[in-house]
Amino acid sequence: MPGIYxxxxxxxxxxxxxxxxTAPWLSxxxxxxxxxxxxNAGSGDSEQNQVHIPATxxxxxxxxxxxxYPIPLxxxxxxxxxxxxxxxxxxxxxxxxxxxxxxxYNQIDxxxxxxxxSMAEDKYAKAIHSLAPASNAADTPVLQATGRSGILGVDxxxxxxxxxxxxxxxxxxxxxxxxxxxxxxxxWPKQGRRLVLCENHWNDLLLDRKNFGDxxxxxxxxxxxxxxxxxDIYSHGIMPHYNGTTKLAWGALPTxxxxxxxxxxxxxxxxxxxxxxxxxxxxSNLDPANQANTLSYRxxxxxxxxxxxxxxxxxxxxxP
Length: 320
What we know:
This protein has helices at 6-19, 97-100, 105-131, 171-182, 199-207, 209-212; strands at residues 37-39, 48-55, 79-84, 86-89, 93-95, 142-144, 148-152, 158-160, 162-163, 166-167, 193-197, 227-228, 231-235, 242-243, 246-247, 261-266, 270-282, 293-305, 311-315. It is α+β, with helices and mostly antiparallel strands.
């Protein structure tokens, strides 16, 4: 890559991929400390980034006002698992010599902006999809919004709020959601609960001025994320879809009655790791047929729940 300082281009793209602010709901979550293990480097489809992490179900039982001695013994068990990071690749982009000469950040950003944005969008959409429960289960509840407003109509019946063919998310639904999490066998620690709202649910709550007022406004313009019912509240543009209470596979196209869900998780249950970022460049003098430079990137990243617990979701069903 003569004359364009390739290491600066790669460093700039790496920095933007790591500091991209499109997923504030992952803010403050530490990365897995284990080293990246690069497998089959440079061999195309078989190349992998892996990380080995300890996986344990060990949780200490807390004794309150204990009067029995000796204190009971609790065994520690530990295993190690290998996680393969997701791979994100850009398509090849052709560039003129003028576009690739230099190393100023504004020049690099102008050329690589769409690549960085697209990779960041995909990796964070995959991240929140991974943190969403596969289905409604004892330790991973998937609740359905009810549209119940708590307001009686002229007929004495409770008003049910709707948006087209779906039931709207209401304050009562969030109260029920909090109560359901509080009844789980594995209790969620009170600090560190996060709820990422899909666009529809975010808009539903914005309409509920009585309970939410302006709490949901401007948080991503410098304010702290609002805290409602014990959850730090965020929103994200691309969320997992559910068929009833069963999550659609990553990449599956939803039908008109399979709606996006809001996802809750506890920060201590999130495993996150940023892998390697690679730059591929073919200078124009090696491509006489087209006389253009070719540039592309490969980036590795993963977010997974450490255990099948401390994750939950809310989805809007069809209007009955």
